[in-house]
Each structure stands twice: as structure tokens, then as C-alpha cells.
């Protein structure tokens, strides 16, 4: 049994609401943030008792906007977790930060205390697009923040890039990717804009000019082509990295390795069980946990492996999950292969770029 654990900490605070955002995040004052940190420390104690023997090899501060915590709270949480759990010496510790609230951080001190990766919510390098998204930062803010991070000695920097922003064109997207690449980002996560009902975009659809399906497809393929020709490896449907610096933490999700999510709306998979905290600071304070059924199933395995560059290894799937693929499955694979959606080398089945684009349909059909 693998005794490693990824720790995800969901910080539910933001300094405003972006037009597309459906994550659990609220505005708050210092007292509420301190109270939340108190609840978090309690939950760390609770879980470290339950999961004795597990060794943490990734930590991810996500949100919301973890940079709003400021240095002292981030370091306090990390030190507390380090004492409660066993940490691997080469633990990947990522802090998500927003360029609009990163100037309150001292990255050198954070690095000294173990943060070795920063994921920055850039989204676009075009100021008009940032405004349309309701972001509260500019291209210049990204430049300044990345400079501060680099000066601290943290070189593993991930940038988020949004595809399908209203009024985005292939040309404007390439400018954003150019900018990200010129900043020497080691990792780029791309997100295709989805319109959720409870967001400004969802409620005021008519005010915005959203990308058509065709344009979205064009943007996705252009991103992949651009990043690959600039030295990035397309290692997962939405993620690209240089120098093998994939996100170890996110890889845990795709490889169905154990992760513990703490904070409102954080999800977990531990010892084959899924559970989560509801979207409420109050519920988290009361340690209300919702069970969410079995995890690490054969179906999840097939689905997640097909999202990755390495794809689905048939023998591994048999060995780990006892999956017996039938003739119908291989007939479908053959058909998708003939149409350029899948590559099959006899051992592993992988989606092509075109297949990634239609991944939901192809994977659902194969399962
Ligand atoms: S900063 Fe992130 S979590 Fe906060 S509102 Fe914007 S998208 Fe949502």
C-alpha cells in the first residue's frame, strides 16, 4: 500500500469575485481569516491522528486566494502541518497567488520556510481581457510579481491561462502565451472557459461575446502547438511543463493517489474513500465531513489515465484493477485510431491532441 499523502488546503477568501468564478470564495476581514486558520489547525490535528503513518509529499495552498493569508499565517499553517504529519524532505509545496494580492508577500521568507513552487492566476496578458474576466490585476502586475518570485530564488513558477475569454482571438492568445514563455514559466495550466449559471457570465450572458465551439477548439489546438514548439511538454489535457516539472500534486489526482483536502469545499480521496467538506466556513469549523462513496475505481482509473500523455496501459489496468477489456472496447479504439483521436502502440492507448479536444465524448464512449 502506498503511504504517501498530498495535502490540499483550500483558502476560501478573495478580494472580489471574477465574472466566471463558481469556486467557493468569500470576502472577509482579518478576524474571519484568523478564525479560519484556527479551524484549519484543528482539522490538521484531527486528520494527522487519523492518518498516522502517512507521509506528506505534496502540499498545495489553493483557493480562493491563498496569498491573502499573508506570510505569517502561511508559515504558521506550514509549520503546524510539518509537526503534525511526517513530511518528505523533497516535498513539493505550492502556493497559489493572485497578482492583485501578492505584494503583501515576502517570497524569500516563504521560500526559506519551504514554499518551492508558486502558481500564479495570470489568465491573460491582455488588460482588456483581464477586465472582461473581472480580474483585479494587470499584465504589469504579473510582470512585477513574477520578478519578485524569481528574486526570492523560487524558480518553479506556474501560470494559469484562460482560453475562450470573451473577445479573445487566436492572435491575442498567442500574445499571452508569448508573454508567459518570456517569463520562463516552468509550467502552464490552461482552462477552457465554462459558463456556470451562478456567475456574472451565467446571469448576464447577453452582455458578452463568448467564443464559439469552433473558436474554442482553434484556441486549444493553437495553445498546444505554440507551447510544444516552445519547449513545453503537453503532459495532461490542460497542463504543460518544461524540464519535467509537472505538478506532482495534481498528478496525485490523476494517478488516484491519496490526497486530503482541508477547508470549505475541499475534496479528499483517502484509502479508497471519497469525502469532502461542504461549501461553508461554518461547516468546516464544525468539522462537518460528507462521505462521497468509493474512490479509486476501475472506471476512474481509465478516465484519468486517458487524460495524461502516457495514456492507459492495458497490462497495468489488468494488474491493478483486474480490468478485462473486451472485443467491443478494442473495436472502438480501432475506430477512434482510424479517425486520428487515439494512438495505440499495442501496450498503451493515448489520446492525440484532436482526441484531447473531444476527450469527454471519447472517454465516455470507451468506458
Ligand atoms: S480569484 Fe480565483 S477563486 Fe477568487 S473569484 Fe477569482 S477565480 Fe474565483
How would you describe this structure to a colleague?
With 367 residues, the protein is an alpha/beta fold. It has 15 helices and 15 strands. Bound molecules: iron/sulfur cluster (SF4). Iron/sulfur cluster is lined by residues 14, 17-18, 21, 23, 25, 63-65, 98, 121.
Keywords:
3-stranded antiparallel beta sheet; 15 strands; 9-stranded mixed beta sheet; alpha/beta; 367 residues; 15 helices; Arc Repressor Mutant, subunit A; TIM Barrel; binds iron/sulfur cluster
Question: What is the fold's blueprint, element by element?
Answer:
Elements: E1 4-11, H1 30-50, E2 55-63, H2 70-84, E3 86-97, H3 107-112, E4 117-123, H4 127-133, H5 139-151, E5 157-163, H6 170-182, E6 187-192, H7 200-203, H8 213-229, E7 233-236, E8 239-241, H9 248-254, E9 259-262, E10 267-270, E11 273-276, H10 281-285, E12 290-294, H11 298-305, E13 312-313, H12 314-321, H13 327-338, E14 342-344, E15 348-351, H14 353-357, H15 359-366
Helix pairs in contact: 1-2, 6-8
Shape: globular
Question: Number of DSSP helices?
Answer: 15
| CATH level-four homologous superfamily name of the largest domain | Aldolase class I
Task: Give the fraction of residues assigned to helices.
Answer: 40-55%
Question: H/E series, N to C?
Answer: EHEHEHEHHEHEHHEEHEEEHEHEHHEEHH
Main CATH class of the largest domain: Alpha Beta
Parts with pLDDT < 50 across at least 5 consecutive residues: none
Number of spatially distinct domains: 2
Cofactors, ions and other ligands in the entry:
iron/sulfur cluster
Question: What class do helices, strands and sheet pairing give?
Answer: alpha/beta
| Reported CATH architecture of the largest domain | Alpha-Beta Barrel
| Number of DSSP E strands | 15
Main β-sheet: number of strands, strand sense, barrel status? 9 strands, mixed
Mean pLDDT: 95
Beta-strand share of residues: 15-25%
Strand order of the largest sheet: 7-8-6-5-4-3-2-1-9
End-to-end separation in angstroms reads 26 Å
Q: Please tell me how large the radius of gyration is.
A: 21 Å
- CATH level-3 fold name of the largest domain: TIM Barrel
Amino acid at each position: 500500500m502506498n503511504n504517501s499523502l498530498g495535502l490540499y488546503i483550500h483558502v476560501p477568501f478573495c478580494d472580489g469575485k471574477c465574472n466566471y468564478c463558481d469556486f467557493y470564495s468569500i470576502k472577509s476581514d482579518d478576524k474571519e481569516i484568523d478564525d479560519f486558520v484556527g479551524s484549519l489547525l484543528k482539522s490538521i490535528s484531527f486528520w494527522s491522528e487519523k492518518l498516522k503513518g502517512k507521509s506528506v509529499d505534496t502540499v498545495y495552498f489553493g483557493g480562493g486566494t491563498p496569498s491573502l493569508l499573508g506570510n505569517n499565517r502561511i508559515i504558521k499553517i506550514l509549520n503546524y502541518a510539518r509537526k503534525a504529519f511526517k513530511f518528505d524532505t523533497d516535498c513539493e509545496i505550492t502556493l497559489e497567488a493572485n497578482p492583485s494580492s501578492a505584494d503583501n508577500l515576502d517570497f524569500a521568507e516563504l521560500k526559506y520556510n519551504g514554499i518551492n513552487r508558486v502558481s500564479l492566476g495570470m489568465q491573460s496578458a491582455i488588460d482588456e481581457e483581464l477586465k472582461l474576466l473581472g480580474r483585479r490585476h494587470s499584465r504589469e502586475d504579473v510582470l512585477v510579481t513574477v520578478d519578485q518570485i524569481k528574486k526570492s530564488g523560487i524558480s518553479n513558477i506556474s501560470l494559469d491561462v484562460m482560453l475562450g475569454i470573451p473577445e479573445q482571438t487566436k492572435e491575442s492568445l498567442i500574445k499571452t502565451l508569448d508573454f508567459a514563455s518570456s517569463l520562463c514559466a516552468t509550467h502552464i495550466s490552461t482552462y477552457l472557459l465554462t459558463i456556470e449559471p451562478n456567475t456574472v457570465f451565467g446571469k448576464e450572458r447577453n452582455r458578452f461575446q463568448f467564443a464559439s465551439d469552433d473558436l474554442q477548439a482553434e484556441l486549444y489546438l493553437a495553445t498546444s502547438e505554440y507551447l510544444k514548439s516552445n519547449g513545453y511538454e503537453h503532459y495532461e489535457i490542460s497542463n504543460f511543463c518544461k524540464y519535467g516539472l509537472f505538478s506532482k500534486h495534481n498528478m496525485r489526482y490523476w494517478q488516484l493517489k491519496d490526497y486530503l483536502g482541508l477547508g470549505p469545499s475541499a475534496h479528499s480521496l483517502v484509502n479508497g474513500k471519497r469525502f469532502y467538506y461542504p461549501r461553508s466556513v461554518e461547516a468546516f469549523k464544525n468539522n462537518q465531513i460528507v462521505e462521497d462513496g468509493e474512490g479509486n475505481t476501475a472506471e476512474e482509473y481509465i478516465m484519468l489515465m486517458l487524460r495524461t500523455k502516457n495514456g492507459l496501459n492495458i497490462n497495468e489496468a489488468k494488474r491493478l484493477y483486474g480490468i478485462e477489456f473486451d472485443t467491443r472496447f478494442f473495436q472502438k479504439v480501432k475506430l477512434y485510431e482510424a479517425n486520428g483521436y487515439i494512438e495505440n502502440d499495442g501496450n498503451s492507448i493515448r489520446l492525440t491532441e484532436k482526441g484531447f479536444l473531444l476527450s469527454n465524448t471519447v472517454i465516455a464512449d470507451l468506458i
